[in-house]
């Protein structure tokens, strides 16, 4: 079936380069996505969150594309950006080339008009639009959280589609922007006890791998979990498959069982070493709740291994004012801002034989993209085993 995306006169003019070549390119990207996803039209978005900020994720070709197009492209809607590769306020042994190319990316996004958030948890940093409003989020955990928790409407965007939305203020009306698709057709039947944030991450990862639907139900079992467990669930779900939303609605559709055997299969895949020589916490980045929780757990103790704690800079500043950051640093933790564990050049197999983390998302990327073995353990167990 041939699908025609109906454009307004203004959109047609933009496509015909009447507002410049860069805007035309952005509309062509959205038009191609619209045709592929059976969208009948484009609709406005209130907010865009971009990925493709870390030099490790876009490489030299991405730097060249952004640098060239930043001469003309300007963002029409509020646009925040994902973490970059490192914390510029901390000493590191990264190559000059990496840092130079990373700064070219930052300068390009700033020139286009982005907010320099460098965070994968924008929903914890900024005032959200009202429920039901459309946004365009390229960070997968943020997209799942926006849809599932905050009632916003977004697809799991690519870095390119979100960039096109930032330039045009538009997005194709398809998939999770359509209300009927936001109703789950399949349920994961939970048949094992879930208690830690890691348990919920494993559930999310299994679910993302097991279904091809855009929305999944977990039933009322997930109704009252805290923000840490919710983020772990959302991040893992968004990492392992196409699903971009979860629900607690009871449904009469198909069920897929998740029990001890399924839990073990995920651990067998991602838990690839019994220990490690560095602890990495923060994928997604730690928010205020998790920073406070962690500081209470380590108060008066010392980490027995190097511990890297990734969080947004704005929340680090608040943690410094409240004394939370000092407690973490007194315990030997290194708080790293503007970056995240995923695809970070700070965590490589040349430097570390194994990484200890409680993040299923981090375990996936460390194992499969960075070639680093992972000891996957819940946070309380990490504190119990690696502090004294």
Describe the structure.
- The protein is α/β, with parallel strands linked by helices and 388 residues long.
- It has 3 domains: 9-178, Aconitase, domain 3, CATH 3.30.499.10; 183-268, no CATH class; 272-386, Aconitase, domain 3.
- It is 41% helix and 14% strand.
- The chain has helices at 9-15, 21-36, 55-69, 96-112, 140-148, 159-168, 197-210, 227-240, 260-270, 288-298, 313-322, 324-330, 360-368, 379-386; strands spanning 42-44, 48-50, 79-81, 136-137, 170-172, 186-190, 215-217, 245-247, 254-258, 278-281, 306-311, 333-337, 354-357, 373-376.
- A 5-stranded parallel sheet has the order 12-11-10-13-14.
- It is globular, with a radius of gyration of 21 Å.
- The relative contact order is 0.12.
How are the SSEs ordered, and which strands pair?
Blueprint: H1 9-15, H2 21-36, E1 42-44, E2 48-50, H3 55-69, E3 79-81, H4 96-112, E4 136-137, H5 140-148, H6 159-168, E5 170-172, E6 186-190, H7 197-210, E7 215-217, H8 227-240, E8 245-247, E9 254-258, H9 260-270, E10 278-281, H10 288-298, E11 306-311, H11 313-322, H12 324-330, E12 333-337, E13 354-357, H13 360-368, E14 373-376, H14 379-386
Parallel strand pairs: 2-3, 2-4, 6-9, 7-8, 10-11, 10-13, 11-12, 13-14
Antiparallel strand pairs: 1-5
Helix pairs in contact: 2-6, 3-4, 5-8, 7-8, 7-9, 10-12
């Amino acid at each position: 079936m041939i699908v025609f995306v109906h454009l307004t006169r203004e959109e047609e003019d933009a496509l015909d380069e009447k507002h410049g070549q860069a805007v035309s390119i952005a509309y062509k990207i959205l038009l191609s996505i619209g045709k592929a996803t059976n969208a009948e039209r484009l609709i406005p978005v209130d907010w865009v969150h971009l990925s493709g900020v870390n030099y490790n994720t876009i490489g030299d070709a991405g730097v060249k594309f952004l640098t060239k197009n930043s001469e003309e492209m300007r963002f029409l809607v509020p646009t925040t950006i994902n973490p970059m590769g490192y914390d510029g306020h901390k000493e590191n042994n990264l190559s000059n080339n990496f840092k130079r190319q990373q700064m070219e990316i930052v300068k390009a996004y700033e020139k286009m008009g982005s907010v320099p958030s460098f965070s994968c948890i924008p929903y914890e940093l900024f005032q959200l639009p009202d429920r039901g409003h459309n946004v365009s989020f390229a960070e997968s955990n943020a997209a799942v959280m926006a849809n599932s928790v905050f009632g916003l409407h977004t697809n799991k965007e690519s870095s390119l589609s979100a960039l096109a939305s930032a330039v045009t203020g538009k997005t194709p009306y398809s998939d999770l922007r359509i209300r009927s698709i936001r109703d789950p057709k399949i349920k994961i039947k939970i048949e094992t006890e879930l208690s830690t944030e890691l348990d919920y991450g494993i559930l999310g990862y299994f679910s993302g791998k097991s279904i091809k639907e855009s929305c999944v139900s977990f039933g009322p079992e997930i109704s009252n979990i805290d923000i840490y467990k919710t983020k772990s669930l959302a991040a893992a779900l968004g990492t392992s498959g196409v699903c971009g939303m979860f629900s607690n609605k009871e449904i009469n559709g198909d069920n897929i069982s998740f029990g001890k055997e399924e839990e073990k299969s995920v651990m067998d895949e991602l838990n690839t070493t019994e220990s490690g020589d560095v602890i990495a916490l923060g994928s997604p980045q730690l928010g205020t709740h998790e920073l406070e929780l962690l500081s209470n757990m380590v108060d008066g103790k010392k980490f027995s291994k190097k511990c890297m704690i990734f969080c947004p800079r704005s929340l680090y500043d608040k943690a410094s004012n409240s004394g939370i950051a000092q407690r973490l640093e007194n315990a030997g933790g290194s708080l790293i801002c503007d970056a995240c564990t995923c695809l970070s050049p700070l965590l490589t197999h040349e430097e570390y034989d194994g990484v200890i983390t409680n993040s299923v998302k981090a375990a996936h990327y460390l194992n499969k993209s960075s070639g680093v073995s992972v000891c996957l353990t819940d946070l309380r167990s990490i504190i119990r085993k690696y502090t004294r």
